[in-house]
Amino acid sequence: MGARDQGLGSESRVTAALRSAAVVPSGAASSCPMSRRAAATVLRAWCIEDLRLLAKKRLPRAVFEFFDGGAEDETTLRDNRAAFERVRLAPKMLAGVSQIDTVASVLGASSKLPIAVGPTGGVGFGWPFADVGIARAAAAAGIPYTLSTMATASIERIAREAGGRLWFQAYIFKKRDITMQLIERARQLGYDALMVTVDVPVGGKRERDFRNHYTIPFRFTRRNLLDFASRPGWALSILRRGMPVLENVASFAPEATNAAEIASSVGRFWDPGFDWDGMKEMRERWPGKMLVKGILRADDAERLAGLGVDAVVVSNHGGRQLDGAVAALDALPPIVRAVKGRMSVLVDGGVRRGVDVVKAIALGAEGVMIGRATLYGACAAGEAGAARALEILRDEFVRSMQLSGVRTVREIGADLLAGAGSAASGGA
Ligand SMILES: Cc1cc2nc3c(=O)[nH]c(=O)nc-3n(C[C@H](O)[C@H](O)[C@H](O)COP(=O)(O)O)c2cc1C
């Protein structure tokens, strides 16, 4: 069976997806500009790595490496990917897999895929209003989208232009009032869940940003000027639209609203003193569903379940915080064992293939979140690129389910793991 048989290679299907993306928010105009040429180019991307290479080609090195890189020696960044590659499946044959249902329950509501788009800050530097493009692509794909506090599109803009199921990600500002005001705006606009990120008490040491002169305050130096000038298409888009603005925090932190500044300022505004008492207070003040992102230990997850938190995202921030932290996928099983039935468990970090979603669910996750996958797509072609990333993951997920012999997401279980189940390994 070729890619075309499942629609991945079909231009008309992608065009239809884009058309439907455009109508999702009841005809609202998108701030994310469209480029027909770039949209045509991403149709030649067959995997997330292809989209990554397209993004690399289009972006100045400093910008690409801000998105692509991790902390210090990047051991955790690499291990996130390696952890997925270490897992082997024992597929079932003769399962009758002509009909596949990818619908899953994610945080208590139906999602067309067991995938949610995670929060990524500063993405407008990769493509103007990429946040909007990614959010609209997520809505078209029928999956949740999480808006970062450090997004280059405001809470209001996303609510107006994206549609779909929206979650808001909060960092805890030293001035707690700022966080509370942002959360209140999200609540009033109908965001259906709050995600509190707890793995950035201080910023990780991201040395690529230092080397690339991606610094605060943003200054053009001879090196980064040459770098930026080497990508005229990108430079033109910035000149036309102006420097991206961190719209959610623009009025609170005027000294750092330029997207380029967050590279080395990451963590500067957050409260390293935020602790369990603060978390308890957050839980009490947010009436809706709450996820806590950045958990790698079973005891932390258990304590959050005790506070009435609805979900944890097992995550090391895509390898951007503590270098040397455990790969997210490796941290997943003990956390699932500790809180199963009491809260949802999602995992992120290194998801690049549809089969990774099967692996994460087989290891006990309710679903995965993705960061760079849609970000690479958006950097290559705005909304069309993000839609392509989701189309690729969807196609690979369906194909992997068929090849694994499972017809529904519920059928994906630990028995698919090679060597894990007695039936698969032939044991008693
Ligand atoms: C460029 C970039 C910006 C990010 N910004 C945020 C953020 O603002 N808030 C947050 O909680 N996580 C942030 N993350 C982490 C992601 O939400 C997610 O945990 C990570 O990207 C998952 O790994 P993956 O990129 O391999 O999928 C960011 C990640 C990247 C790559």
Key terms for this structure?
binds flavin mononucleotide; TIM Barrel; 10 strands; eight-stranded parallel β-sheet; 428 residues; disordered N terminus; disordered C terminus; alpha/beta; 18 helices; single chain; two-stranded antiparallel ribbon; globular
Overview of the molecule:
The protein has 428 residues and is an alpha/beta fold. The chain has one domain (13-23, 31-206, 268-419): TIM Barrel, CATH 3.20.20. 44% of the residues lie in helices and 10% in strands. It has 18 helices and ten strands. The strands form two sheets. The protein has an eight-stranded parallel sheet with strand order 3-10-9-8-7-6-5-4. Strands 1-2 form a two-stranded antiparallel ribbon. The longest helix is centred in the C-terminal third of the chain and has 33 residues, at 372-404. It is globular, with a radius of gyration of 21 Å. The chain starts with 10 loop residues before the first helix and ends with a helix. The site of flavin mononucleotide has 23 residues, from helix 17.
